[in-house]
What does this fold into?
Amino acid sequence: VHGVPPSLSAKVVGSFAYLTVRDRMPTILTRVIDTIHRNKNKFFEEYGEEGIQAEKQTISLLSKMRNELLTDKPLLELTDSLQDTESWNQYLQRQQKQQGDQDSVSWFKSPWLYVECYMYRRVQEALWLNPPISDYDVFNEGKTQSFFESQQAMMTLCTYVEGLNKNMEGLSKNQLLEHFNKLLQVSLWGNKCDLSISAGQDNSQKTSPIDSLDSLQPFILVNDSNRVWSALISPQRPGQSKETALVRVDIVLDNSGFELFTDLVLADFLVSSRLAHEIHFHGKSFPWFVSDVTANDFQWTIRQTTAANHKWMSKSGVQWMSHLKDGAWSYHDHPFWTQPHEFCDMEADAPDLYATLQGADLVLFKGDLNYRKLTGDREWDHTASFHTALRGFGPAPLCSLRTLKANVQVGLQPGQGERLGSQDPEWMTSGKYAVVQFDNAKSE
Ligand code: F6P
Ligand code: MG
It folds into this structure.
């Protein structure tokens, strides 16, 4: 039996983890500080002198953290008292025990996944310690902007959907499959548009999401979409028979903006084609990795879409709204999604969430961070199987839709990784490549 490989870490000088901790994370923090400062007047208008005090305090806490990061200080316990504070502090204590030395659990010496999650939780701590502005979403401006900058691409997509819906009843199974594959790929490539990899800079969709699919095809390194399709058309949940099958698909969301839009389009298609009767969306309970979807972003995006100045786009929005009203769609969040755990720990650490996911026939995990958590963000050989890297995680048949933005990739053919590496040294981190990677724990 092979051991579990070590976690990616900024310890490895020059690695992507190292560059992220050294460059991208401080840049993100600087932007956060700047955003809070720019909104000083708004806080004053809303909360008077208290708002100004809160702004100052928050900035001072954040600058202090930035400094800790830049000088590789030990990670500190959280000092707020929220639902998840205890579990974060226990996690830190466990790390310290494992390392046997308090100081070695520091920004550059700890697992990258943990450190990066921790930074976003500390941003939240700084806000929460300053009640007047504790609900302020420091990433809201960027998310809103990236939504508007992708408008053209969204309209194109909605026009496609309109054409599809008009003919839905007359589609053969093969045609349905073809549309499914297209919308799955649109949602896959939607993951390019995240604001963490760009350290907060504009990263919106500028080209037609449908027209570019053919040329993007060669960049999908693993494509298990046929297995995803099978999971939909012959669900295997206990107690399901083929005739009465009510298929539930869970989508573990990643980023707001264009990516969320593509997820909603896919979810709408699944429901209107009756491939699924119910979609559960899972989002984050506080702002996370710059562009991740919160409840607020989710509602806002749907409302904006209903109000779009484009016939088919607003029609889509109205349709989505009605899915929410009639219960075909629902939005959920859980503290586990904003913790640093690998997903193989979910069953033990968040049994309620694990049980919830077991009610799905298919779980789609969007994006890079989810992939890192699925595989534990570890130095796996590229030829290790996805199933092995999941280390027993499998509440339901699952699929990762991910563009590559971190140094972890499993399930490749022998030699494939080496070949890619020699053609394009940045293949794992540029977001240029993608995978549609499926696993069904039960069938393996
Ligand atoms: O900051 C790096 C990172 O964690 C990368 O792994 C990835 O580029 C990004 O943040 C998050 O990506 P995604 O939004 O696809 O989860
Ligand atoms: Mg993200």
User: Anything to note?
Assistant: The mean pLDDT is 95. The chain has 17 helices and seven strands.
